[in-house]
Amino acid sequence: MKKLLLSLAGLVLLAVMAFPGNVDAAEKKIAVMWVGKAGMANAVLMGFLQRAKSIAPNMEIQLRRQLGSMQEAETIFREFESTMDGIVFLRSNGAEFLAKADPKIPCFIGGCNNPAFLGAVKNLSAPDGNITGVTYFIPHEQIFQVMLTLFPQVKSVGLLLEKDHPSTVIDQEGTRAQCQKLKLAYNEVLASNRDQLMEGVAKFAGKVDIFIIGNAALAIDNTVSILAAANRTRTPIFSFAEKPVKAGAVVGMVADDTKLGSMLADSVVDVVINGKPVSKVPVKTDPAPKILINKAMMQDLGLKFPEEILQRAVFAE
Hints:
By secondary structure, this protein is α/β, with parallel strands linked by helices. It has two domains: about 20-135 and about 255-280, Response regulator (Rossmann fold, 3-Layer(aba) Sandwich); about 140-255 and about 290-315, Rossmann fold. The protein is built from 14 helices and twelve strands. Strand 4, helix 5 and strand 5 form a beta-alpha-beta unit. Helix 2 packs across helix 12. The longest helix has 17 residues, at about 1-20. It starts with a helix and ends with a strand.
């Protein structure tokens, strides 16, 4: 009988050793970091923390938010490589950093534009280089399909961009390609500061049918000023980001950052706790991006949108 009990105890020990994913959540440590201020990163973090608490309550999470520079971030990142089981590096500049970092442990992106353009991964479906995560990127073809359903009269666009921002080339190339395909006149304002931005808006106001605010902070943070200039000629503003719609852009098509944060937590747990290879965890996108409408601005401009769009839209508060 004693021998039988010892044998059973040995089998139980072997079973525990064979399936460490059932017991190692408390031993796993994850770092979440980003450089600079970003509301999007905070929204992703909120979704991440809520989901992580639900599916891996014992996983330790260390936060290093709003770091002052990439130099500071690199020092912290290299320290985390030897003390953490995984690192979440948010924002597009984080994805660009990881593209060159050759990470030694699993790393995860979020709150960033198309990671293939940023160099972090080559294949979103089968990520390489120990990097996966989520992206707010929405194919420009999908965005333009919605925009032209709402604004069928549009024949020319004015894209507002920030010089040297990681998202600029992505928004620039995607928008230009759609304009070429759809035979729309493409114009852009590529600005380094607020004065240059507003000079460009003044130049094109009344000459383009619609302004588009891209995914860079310069235009996003100056939406109210852009709106004032555009309103003089009753030019509507479309946005690739959520914040401008709340500030007065009439429509945006945007990913749900909190939802993406939750999806990011699932990916982290899959890799770090469940042991799934990074290459088997695709970079995720929002499967149902929001059509966000500023109803007050829609009414102010006298716009009427198709009922099927209004039924699925979210109205900015």
